């Protein structure tokens, strides 16, 4: 850049160029400390929105909310029957209506359940497959009955860390 300008302005240009380079370089070295805001999605089995295009709309399936969500988002699931196989492929917090309520503690009764049961939809396979680190699944009932000779699991997770599977009933 310096060879394009001659005279007294070349010193100013060099200083300006170095200042800009330092500011931009410092931004990348020290990083941007602003974090993207997390979003909360809502799922209700009685909703008619099978595609989640906005957090304003209530999604009808847990899987459609997972597809629409970004890493770090929260999905709140209302009580109801969800006859889907669910694959969680990003770090999400998925909260059922009984999140935070221990199913073994009878002093705190659980409310109506969000039941994940793919055998109701005769799809077979795992009810919930966790395919990412950093997933929380809290407050569900998960039921999965084998169909035919298919091998099934309630919750399947292999080689992932920072998983929080809690307050769930798995049948």
Model description:
The chain has helices spanning 9-30, 62-68; strands spanning 40-43, 74-77, 80-82, 86-88, 93-95, 114-116, 128-130, 136-138, 141-142, 155-157, 164-166, 169-170. 23% of the residues are buried. The chain is α/β, with parallel strands linked by helices and 171 residues long. Strands 1-2-5-8-11 form a five-stranded parallel beta sheet, covered by helices on one side. Strands 3-6-9-12 form a four-stranded parallel beta sheet, with no helix packed on it.
The strand count comes to 12
- The value of Rg in angstroms is 24 Å
- As a percent range, the share of strand residues is 15-25%
The low-pLDDT segments are: 1-35
Strand order of the largest sheet: 1-2-5-8-11
**Count of discrete alpha- or pi-helical segments spanning 4 or more residues:** 2
Estimate the mean pLDDT confidence.
80
- Mind describing the biggest β-sheet? 5 strands, parallel
Q: What is the subunit arrangement here?
A: single chain
What is the secondary structure topology, with strand pairs?
Layout: H1 9-30, E1 40-43, H2 62-68, E2 74-77, E3 80-82, E4 86-88, E5 93-95, E6 114-116, E7 128-130, E8 136-138, E9 141-142, E10 155-157, E11 164-166, E12 169-170
Parallel strand pairs: 1-2, 2-5, 3-6, 4-7, 5-8, 6-9, 7-10, 8-11, 9-12
């Amino acid at each position: 850049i310096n060879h394009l300008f001659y005279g007294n302005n070349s010193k100013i240009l060099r200083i300006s160029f170095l200042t800009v380079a330092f500011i931009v370089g410092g931004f990348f070295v020290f990083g941007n400390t602003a974090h993207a805001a997390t979003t909360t999605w809502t799922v209700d089995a009685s909703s008619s929105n099978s595609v989640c295009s906005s957090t304003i709309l209530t999604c009808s399936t847990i899987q459609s909310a997972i597809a629409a969500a970004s890493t770090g988002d929260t999905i709140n699931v209302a009580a109801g029957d969800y006859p889907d196989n669910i694959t969680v492929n990003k770090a999400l917090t998925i909260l059922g209506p009984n999140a935070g309520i221990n199913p073994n503690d009878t002093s705190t009764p659980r409310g109506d359940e969000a039941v994940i049961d793919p055998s109701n939809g005769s799809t077979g396979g795992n009810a919930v497959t966790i395919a990412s680190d950093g997933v929380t699944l809290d407050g569900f009932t998960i039921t999965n009955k084998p169909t035919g000779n298919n091998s099934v699991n309630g919750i399947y997770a292999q080689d992932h860390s920072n998983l929080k599977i809690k307050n769930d009933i798995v049948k």
